[in-house]
Amino acid sequence: MLLSSLMAPSFLLLSHVLILFVLVHASEDLRGNMREVKVKAGEEVTLECQGPTHAPIEVLKWIRPDLMSDRGLEGYVFFYRDERSHESYHHQLFVGRVELRDPEMKDGDVSLILRNVSTNDTGRYEGHVSVSNTGRRKRAQSELWCVIKLTVEDPGPTHEETWFRQIAQVLGLEENHLLYVLVSVAVVVILLTGLCCAVIKKYKNHSQNYGPSMQESEEMAMKAQDPCSCDSRSHC
């Protein structure tokens, strides 16, 4: 009796230690499977995930936990069931921008392609998979297979933007003021070019209407050089 009373607390303590060990080990394993991916805004990224290969995949869910609603439907990044994707379950942020790298998910490849990323896509992505079950239950419970922390960085200024900023610094102007100056100069150049074209065109028209033609000018020059070209041949 005394031995049993002593063993009971020890057994309870041991069970708590085992539970704590399992939880810590699972947490460390999850952290080890988390992958960090960094991309530039506007690029395409593939969320790599290797799913199970021992049975056909029946349900695949890619989610952003921070976007999940109470109903659990509006937060899906990608949802696959019954051998097809269901875009109506996708969050509006990802509609038309996601697809499986391998639509047939051969060899358990459940990697997801996300196109034209922006800073709004930064966050934690989870891939949940459930496979076909030959037992009583129609489907096995969905399991977490991969966790990806995606960071989308601003691509930074382009070469043209950097050049524009340097010009503004050299001139001692703010960027918006320099823009106004450049626009004003461009407008003046366009107006002057149009004015010059109009003057040249008007001058050409005036010359054609009032000035002698080229043929008449040549005939007048020949007459001036030939003394016998006068109307009265008797005087020549």
TrEMBL record:
Pfam families: V-set (PF07686)
Lineage of producing organism: Eukaryota, Metazoa, Chordata, Craniata, Vertebrata
Annotated membrane topology: Single-pass type I membrane protein
Gene that specifies this protein: LOC108887016
GO BP: any one term: T cell costimulation
Keywords: Cell membrane, Disulfide bond, Glycoprotein, Immunoglobulin domain, Membrane, Receptor, Signal, Transmembrane, Transmembrane helix
Main location: membrane
Protein name: Uncharacterized protein LOC108887016
Organism: Lates calcarifer (Barramundi)
Domain Ig-like, first and last residues per copy: 9-143
InterPro entries referenced in this protein's UniProt entry, alphabetically: Ig-like_dom, Ig-like_dom_sf, Ig-like_fold, Ig_sub, Ig_V-set, T-cell_Activation_Regulation
